[in-house]
Recover the amino acids of this structure.
């Protein structure tokens, strides 16, 4: 049974016990980026440890250059 999470407001299905790092691999995310789960910043050192839960809201933010 898959779990559903929202990534930048888009629904995604993941295997149970998926971690932030698994999601980033699935999305082929390219650094640099910052990750927040339910508005809580997740440091890069925690990406392989933080387990995602059903209905988590994940934001993957890339820095904007220029101005």
């Amino acid at each position: 049974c898959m779990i559903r999470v929202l990534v930048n407001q888009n629904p995604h299905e993941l295997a149970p016990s998926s971690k932030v790092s698994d999601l980033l691999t699935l999305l082929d995310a390219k650094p640099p980026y910052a990750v927040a789960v339910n508005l809580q910043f997740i440091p890069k050192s925690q990406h392989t440890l933080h387990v995602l839960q059903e209905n988590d809201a994940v934001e993957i933010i890339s820095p904007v250059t220029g101005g």
